[in-house]
Amino acid sequence: MSSRTKFRLLALTLAMTSNWAVGTAIADIGVYNNLRQSRDAILAQRARLQDAHDKLAKQIDYLQSQQDKVNAYLNDNDRSLRDVDRALAANQ
Fold first, then answer.
1. pTM for this prediction
2. Ramachandran angles phi, psi of 2, nearest 5°
């Protein structure tokens, strides 16, 4: 094999290796960008879920306070009913 042919073969090999390396680097950048986009989408979804969670927690707190008030009214009602029942029993 002549030195010219060896040089061409070496140049071709280097060019192919260089193209492969550049292609791999571009693919790596593409994968990285896809992962970043996925991460951003997941973070956005998490923010929406956290907002929904916070709204539900506020609604639950409100409903719990309403239930506490109703329970207090029921307790007052039960006491009043017992008082009236005692008074009726005492007057028989």
1. 0.56
2. -75, 160
pLDDT tens by residue, 44-87? 999 999 999 999 999 999 999 999 999 999 999 999 999 999 99
Q: Which amino acid is at 70?
A: V
Could you report how far apart the first and last alpha carbons of the chain are, in Å? 130
Cα 92 from Cα 82, distance rounded (Å): 16
Going from the C-alpha of 63 to that of each of 23, 66, 68, 89, the distances in angstroms are 59, 5, 9, 38
Dist. CA 24–CA 37, nearest whole Å: 20
| Tokens 């997941």 belong to residue | 42
∠ Cα 69 70 75 (to 5°): 95
Cα–Cα distance, 53 to 49 (Å, whole number)? 6
Tokens 């790596």 correspond to what residue? Answer: 28
CA distance 24 to 32: 12
